[in-house]
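re: ur question from yesterday

yeah so i grabbed the chain u mentioned. its 453 aa long if i counted rite. heres the sequnce exactly as i have it in my notes:
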Amino acid sequence: MSLKNPRILILGAGPTGCGAAFYLSTLGYNNWAVYEKNSYVGGLSASYVDRNGFTWDNGGHVVFSHFDYFDSLFDFSCADNHFSHMRNAYAYMMDTLVPYPVQNNIRYLKPEIIWEIIQGLIDRPDKSSPKNFKEWIESQFGKGLANHFMYPYNQKVWSVDLKHMDYNWIAERVSVIELKKVLSAVILQRDDSSWGPNHSFKFPQHGGTQAIYLPVQKLIADKLVLNSEVSKIDIKEKTVYFTNGNIDTYDYLINSIPLDEFAGVLLNGVANESIREKAKKLVSNTVLIIGVGVARKDARKLNWIYFPEPEYPWYRVTFFSNYSPFNVPDENHFSLMGEISYPYGTQPDADEEIQRSLSAFVKCGFLNQDDIETKIASLYHRTIPKAYPVPSCDRDEILHAVQPFLMKNNIYSRGRFGGWKYEVANMDHSVMQGKEAVDAILFNKPETVYTIP
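ran it thru and got these C-alpha cells back, copy pasting raw so excuse formatting
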C-alpha cells in the first residue's frame, strides 16, 4: 500500500464501480465512496419496467463469466434468482434462419451461395498483416461470406467504416473459420453451433440484468451517493466537484465515466489540453432500443437473431421473454427487443423506427398482421448515446497517451467506456477491472484484465 488508508473515490455505479465497491465492502475497508450521476445503479446494465409491466434492458445482455470474482458477485446477488440457458441463436439472412455462428453453418443457405462462400475461402487473399478490420475479414472469411454476412452485419453494428477499425480486438469475439470444418458441415449436414463463451449463459429471473447490481446497492448504501454528476476534477488538489454542489477529495480515483467526457472535466494539469484533444478522437456509436410487447404466447425458443441485411433496421433482435418469463406481465405475453445502431451523436426518430420495426417483424415472420392490429400490448424505446466503444485504428495510440497520464495522477480509468477497450468490455470484464483497480491501489497487485497498449 503506497499510502496509509488512502481515500478512494469511485465515479460511476455501473459494473466497474459496483465491482470495486463490492470488493472494498467485502475487504472491510472503509475509506471510500461511490458517486453516480443517475438515480439508479447499473449503468448500461440497468433495466427498466414500462407502464405496461414489461421489463427491458439496454440491449441483449447475457451473463457468462471468465472470472471467479464475477461469479461470487453474481451468486451474492442472484444465486436464487436466475435461469441457466443453452444458447439458441441465429442469423436471419436470405429469408432463412442460419444457426450462429454463420461461418460454421452455411449449409442452410442456397447451393449457389454455399459455393460462392467456399470459393471465397479457397481464394482468400494472403494477408498476414491486414491494415484494418475490413481487410482482416476478407483474409479470414473470403469474399463470399464477407459480402453476404461479415461486411453488412459489422457495418450495421458499428456504424463506422470498417476500414477505420483495427482488428486486434477480435480474440473470442469472432469465430474464425476452418475450411475443413466448413466442408464437413456442408457434406455431412451437421450443425456446429457450440462456439463461443456465451454458448451457455445465465439471466436473472426477476428484474432484468440490473438485478445483479441492486443487492450490491443495498450492501454499499452508506457509501453510495446517487444523482451526483461530476462537473470538474482538480487533479493537483485531488478534488472532485459535482453539479449538485457536493465536493469530495481523494488519494486515488477509479473512474468509469466515458474517457472522452472524463478528460474534458480535468483541471490543473500541464498535459491536460493535449490529453483532452486526444481523448476527443475516441470513437463510439449510438444505439436505439425498440421493444415490442405482444399479448399472446409464442412457442419459439429463440434467444437472439442477427440481421445483416439492410431491409431490416436492427443488427440484433432478442426474444427477451425467453430470457425470463418474468420480463413480461404473464404467460400470455411475449416480447421482442431490437437494437439499431447509428453514428455517434445521431438523434434517432423513435416513432419512425418503431413503425419500421413493426413492418420488418411482419416481413421476417416474427409477428403477423393480426398482432399489429390487435395484440400490441407495449411499445418501448430508449436511446443509448454511447453504446459501443469502437476499436478504431488509432484507439491504442490514443490510450497509450491518455492512460499513462491518468495513472501518474493516481487515476484508474476502467470499464466499458472508462477504459474504451471493447475486447474487455463485457460485464464480467468490467466488474473485474473495478476489483483489480482496488487490488492495485491497496496491495500493489498488477492488473491482468485491463492493460494499457
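noticed a couple things. Residues 133-158 form the longest helix (26 residues). also The mean pLDDT is 93.
anyway ttyl
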